[in-house]
Specification:
By secondary structure, the protein is mainly β. It contains three helices and 14 strands. 28% of the residues are buried.
Length: 249
Amino acid sequence: MAAELSEVALGGYLRRAVRTRGRLTPLEPGGRYFELSEGGKVVLMPVGELGDIGSLNGRRVEVVGFVRPLVETQGTCVVEDSRARSGRRRVPQSYCDDPDLPPTPDLGVGVERAHWPRTSITVWSLSDITPFERGRGGLEHSPLVDLLAERAPSDKRVRVVGRFCGANLCGGLGRRPHPSAWVLQDEDESVWVIGKEPKGKGWRLDPAYDGDTSRRLEVTGRLRRCGQAWCLRAETVALLPRTGASPLP
């Protein structure tokens, strides 16, 4: 679900998966925790598969992750562990609440965390969007679900960021409106893209190859009717860098 960071920071999306964006800065020197800020601030915790994201310090990024609250002292719980002498071990409560995610930090341990935001996002997908927001004349990213919710979308140029789904490889759409059409998926919505092939200088994606569905693209253009459905007539197509992009756990 697309969400403004200011609303996430206020706790409006607790225990929900969101897609949002902001500027990345570290909270601890060489640490695992970062701050994402843009009209609000949250603590960012990347999952292990993302690796080191410190190189993106000061950059504007788009993230997908799970929103959880932070508290001064969360307490502990007991889990089974064959490696422990007793067969059990004590872990932070947040680990028992969400065993597929890293535990959240306590804010009451050390005064250096007293100023941290009280909302966190555990991130499994992160993309640097800074280069793609320069020189675009103020054109804002538009979530596809919002665009398609309009009964009669205006003729304005839009910019959509989403997953490449080739010739409907991800499913969800009907017949191909044109032999060269391909699909862009944003969250749970998909749209056929026409007018431009998924290629650029030094890269090309294959609409028939499942392996290319892991890539993300930025498309600018205008919505047009394709029979009973809407198509996005592309004016530009850009390949987003593969910055730790991972599927939902």
